[in-house]
Design goal:
Elements lengths: L5 H9 L28 E8 L3 E8 L5 E6 L18 E3 L3 E6 L7 E2 L3 H5 L4 E5 L7 E4 L11 E2 L8
Length: 160
Amino acid sequence: MAIFKPRAIALLLTSGCTFTLGRESSSDTGATGGLDLPELEPPTDVTLIDQGTAINVAITGGNSSSWNFGIVFDSQEIFEEGCIGTDPFCHTLTPSGGLVVYCSPASDDCTAIAATFFQQDSISFYLAPPSGPDCWTWGAPTTHYDGENCTEMPWSGVGL
């Protein structure tokens, strides 16, 4: 196994050379491959529960180290918490979910969309790992996420 010193790596990077760090496996043919990362497993269910001052987002299954969670109130054109493209806010959740507190104005830590709108089942939701192409949407309508190639799920936004 070659050992690269920081100065050697800097020279390689600035000289236009590329290299891939990898690890050997039992089926290694001698070629150096990329890092062997586990395949992303999608969540099997997401449940939203109103806790008065916050929404508890409970994620079952999946193996992401964290999740990006977006909330859109399409009929009122509230897209700032959508978590994609130019949407300014994205809620970060742990592997099993977390709380998204009600607030005003919105931020990455809290939602400005009132609990009463969640109860009307007129919100759409987005869930994705911090990197990679996979994402899932649910709720009504999910049109804000049409260009993301997300998988639409039967998870309910109700339960609040």
